[in-house]
Amino acid sequence: MENNFIYDIIEKDLENHKYSHPIITRFPPEPNGYLHIGHVKSICLNFGTALKYGGSCNLRYDDTNPVKEDEEFVGSIENDVKWLGFEWANLCYASNYFGKMYECCEELIRRGKAYACEMSPEEIKANRGTLTEPGKESPWRNRPIEESLQIFHDMRDGKYKDGERVIRAKIDMASPNINMRDPVIYRVLHASHHNTGDQWCVYPMYDFAHPLEDAIEGVTHSICTLEFEDHRPFYNWVLESLDWPEAPQQIEFAKLNLSNTIMSKRNIKALVASGAVEGWDDPRLCTIAGMRRRGYTPEALRAFCDAIGVAKANSQIGMEQLEFFVRDDLKTKTVSRMVVLHPLKLIIDNYPEGKSELLPIENDPNRPELGTREVSFGRELWIEQEDFMEVPAKKYFRLYPGNEVRLKGAYFVTCTGVDKDAEGNITAVHCTYDPETKSGTPGADSRKVKGTIHWVDAATAVELPVREYGYLAYPNEETGRNEFDPNSRTDLSVKAEASLKDAEAGERFQFFRNGYYIADSVLSKPGAPVFNQIVGLKSSWKPEAK
Ligand code: ATP
Ligand code: MG
């Protein structure tokens, strides 16, 4: 990644020997859903920064809220981070620090920096003030320290119901930053936790827990997204009030916003629950699980994150830019195969009936070093419907009556006419071939033809399911919010060269002239692959020239 303001901060800290150990970062997902492309950016940034400066990065489950979390997500997150190619120094659970957090809260009370409040959550909210008006101090604010401590212990011992007592930081009810107006730091919540079970009935609030989690792990640079900027004063207040040595510092960057998709876990969860998509790993989703199934590579995702960099201001990145990096990576990782997505029969009338030959076709026209494979050719072929026009449009160089084209790696053919059914639909195209033009024979290319089309031998073709994808979502014109497009998947039955029948789940190919495809890891069976379109061949986005 190019230099950015985060690197600048770190380099200064290293120069000043601010910390007595190498830098430590962390990626702290809340296990309440599957990770998505936004998290990929955060992962690349946190793990990448640690690597760059010889430090380490922790994977930490930010699981201090017992009611929203789930073991299913815990496993998926580790798998996703590993798949992206990163290794964590420590696997941590914020919930393992509940004991330490409890002690820190006790310490703040002892230092006169926190107190037990008996106002209800509604009253606290009503007395918080607004952006223009200060809040009102709680009547419990100046109660004796011993009393607050006793209440905190009783809260822990289960003597109160949810919401009956809270512990609040004692800061400033007139602060222009509402987050500093005596925020609640501990609450009573009688709920089972996925890690600590029923050990606790008091839980720390996120803003209190987060700086402590970082500090306990020795994190030096706590990188998070912009919406936490207003929370930084409280983050610092917590650690300063506890005199934490070598306290971590929070640095905010702009979230990744991607066009034509639906990003936040909450919204993806709703799509999954509604059945609009096949699950969290639907290939249209920008979850890591979905992108993996779609055929995106970790290398492409990392290159994309590198290229978009980090900034202090929110902006939106076009999906075409992500697709550019996927395509760019697959170029050198796939071989080319001939597949006809929308089949139309082509009959070569002067090719002997019953004859068949094996023609050598390049495994990748752009990489001759990959050699050739033998592909069977015969009198009846499948071609793409769009490679024929009965009445050619302007500048149409493919097949139309009277025109000659090259069949990729085979012969020149000239269109002679069509067959139609009773309704006038074209059922087959007829042509003649010139045996002298066989690909690879000297002089075969002497005649100029403008179009080259691909084909599949009808006698040996295999029929395979292929799923073509459009964008998952488009902005609603009125609200501007992205909405799910129910037509974002098209199921095709295609004609493919016979070898593709043996494609293994997860194997990727370039379908000549059509795009990149992967044998789906969920639906494919041995001898019966189902293909997902990964990305088309044409790019509408290009990197700026340097
Ligand atoms: P969501 O709103 O999708 O649920 P979140 O921010 O609640 O996302 P967390 O599990 O809390 O998800 O996030 C883990 C880390 O990933 C956080 O540090 C968060 O800032 C970061 N992150 C989440 N979304 C993005 C994004 N779009 N771009 C960059 N970083 C992100
Ligand atoms: Mg969240």
Distance between the termini: 15 Å
Gyration radius, in Å: 31 Å
Helix tally equals: 12
Query: Looking at the structure, what is the overall shape?
Result: elongated
How would a crystallographer describe the biggest sheet? 7 strands, mixed
CATH classification, class level of the largest domain: Alpha Beta
User: What name does the CATH topology of the largest domain carry?
Assistant: Rossmann fold
Number of strands: 27
User: Order of strands across the biggest sheet?
Assistant: 10-25-26-27-21-24-11
- How many domains is the backbone divided into? 4
Brief sketch in words of this structure:
This protein has 546 residues and is α/β, with parallel strands linked by helices. 24% of the residues lie in helices and 24% in strands.
Task: Provide an overview of this structure.
This protein has 546 residues and is of the alpha/beta class. It folds into four domains: 5-253, HUPs (Rossmann fold, 3-Layer(aba) Sandwich); 257-327, Glutamyl-tRNA Synthetase, domain 2 (Orthogonal Bundle), CATH 1.10.1160.10; 339-454, Ribosomal Protein L25, Chain P, CATH 2.40.240; 463-535, Ribosomal Protein L25, Chain P (Beta Barrel). The chain contains twelve helices and 27 strands. It has helices at residues 5-15, 37-52, 71-84, 98-110, 121-126, 145-156, 206-216, 232-241, 265-274, 288-294, 298-308, 319-330; strands at residues 24-27, 56-61, 91-93, 114-117, 166-169, 184-188, 202-204, 221-225, 249-253, 335-337, 339-340, 343-348, 356-362, 372-378, 380-384, 404-407, 412-420, 426-434, 452-453, 456-457, 462-469, 473-475, 482-484, 489-496, 508-511, 515-519, 531-535. The chain has a seven-stranded mixed sheet with strand order 10-25-26-27-21-24-11. Helix 2 packs across helix 11 (298-308), helix 7 packs across helix 8 (232-241) and helix 11 (298-308) crosses helix 12 (319-330). The relative contact order is 0.10. The mean pLDDT is 96. The structure holds adenosine-5'-triphosphate (ATP) and magnesium ion. Adenosine-5'-triphosphate is lined by residues 28-30, 38-39, 41-42, 224-225, 255-256, 263-266.
